[in-house]
Design brief:
It contains five helices and seven strands, in the order αβαββββαβαβα. By secondary structure, the protein is α/β, with parallel strands linked by helices. Helix 4 links the parallel strand 6 and strand 7.
Length: 139
């Protein structure tokens, strides 16, 4: 698996080129990685952020209205940033493909290597890298 890992340089390049990030699995709980990592990306101010979680759809988290699915995003998605259990990975990748997203970024712990292997020729993946850490390298 080691040859597929996209660490800092590749992950940072993906983030630098991105304009839109859709966060799948956002939580309103400040102690959850989806919350504080997303807050860090927002703080950098370089990306349009969409928050996705059907449980909180219509509510605001971090000052952004939560959507129920990627299908509700009304512009092209550069990065689908995933904070979900790996068992949901294939469903998320299929929806990302359906909406024409450019990349699926699995946060540490959300990776599903079987799904990555199955779809690697259809969409770009970043994994084993935290988008919040990478955002720290942005100017």
């Amino acid at each position: 698996m080691e040859e597929k890992v996209k660490h800092r340089e590749d992950a940072l390049e993906v983030l630098k080129k991105a304009k839109t990030v859709a966060v799948v699995g956002i939580s309103p709980k400040e102690d959850r990685p989806s919350y504080y990592v997303t807050a860090r990306v927002i703080e950098k101010g370089q990306h349009k952020i969409y928050l996705i979680n059907p449980r909180y759809a219509g509510q605001e988290i971090l000052g952004i209205k939560v959507l129920s699915s990627l299908r509700e995003v009304d512009e092209p998605i550069d990065i689908v940033n995933v904070f979900r259990n790996p068992s949901f990975a294939e469903e998320i990748v299929k929806e990302a493909l359906e909406v024409g997203a450019r990349c699926v970024w699995f946060q540490p712990g959300a990776e599903n290597y079987e799904v990555i292997e199955k779809y690697k020729d259809k969409i770009n993946f970043v994994y084993e890298a935290c988008i919040g850490v990478e955002a720290g390298y942005l100017n």
